[in-house]
Fold [Ribosomal protein bS18]-alanine N-acetyltransferase.
Amino acid sequence: MTVGDVPAVYDIEQQSFPSGSWTMDAFYHELEKNEFGHYFVMTLDDQVIGYLGLWIVIDQAQITTVAIAETLRGCGYGQLLLEYVMNYARMTCEMMSLEVREENAAARHVYEKLGFSYGGLRRDYYGPGQDAKVMWVRLKNE
Ligand SMILES: CC(C)(COP(=O)(O)OP(=O)(O)OC[C@H]1O[C@@H](n2cnc3c(N)ncnc32)[C@H](O)[C@@H]1OP(=O)(O)O)[C@@H](O)C(=O)NCCC(=O)NCCS
C-alpha cells in the first residue's frame, strides 16, 4: 500500500466497518510513521479491491486490518491475500495473530481454513460489551 492507495482503501474501509472505520489519517500514519507497519493492497485491473495491514514486532506478526470490496467478497480474494501475507511474514515470524468478532462468521471461516485457532478473548475490544476473539497460527514448523 502506498499513500496514493489510501483513498481507495478508505472507500473499502467504510463499506467494511461502518460503525468503527479507521480514518484516512490513520492509514497515512501507519504508512509514514509506524516502523512496525507493513501494509498491502490487492488489485484487479489496476483497481484496489482489498487491503491488509500487519504489525511485525521481532518474530510476531499481528494483523491490524483486512477487508475485500463488498461486491467482490466470496470469490476467494480474501483467502489469497491472507495466504500471500502469511508467506511474507513467515520469512521472519514464528506466529501470526488477529482479533475477530464472534459474529463475523465469514472471516472466522477463512481464518480457520488457513489454520488459525482460538487463543483467547479480549474483553470490550470493540467497545463496551463487544469482545474480540484472538486467533493465532504458527507460521513455522517446529
Ligand atoms: C473477511 C473477508 C476479508 C473475507 O474476504 P473474502 O474475499 O470474502 O474471502 P474468501 O472469498 O476467500 O472466503 C470467504 C469464505 O467465507 C465463507 N462464508 C461467507 N459467508 C459466510 C458466513 N456467513 N458464514 C460462514 N462462512 C461464510 C465463504 O463460503 C468462503 O468460504 P469457502 O471458500 O470455504 O467457500 C471479507 O468478508 C471482508 O472484507 N469482510 C468485511 C471486513 C472484515 O470483516 N474483515 C475482517 C475483520 S477480523
Remarks:
- The CA atoms of residues 66 and 127 lie 19 Å apart.
- The chain has one domain: 3-138.
- The beta strands are 37-44, 47-57, 60-68, 95-101, 117-122, 132-138.
- The chain is about 30% helix and 35% strand.
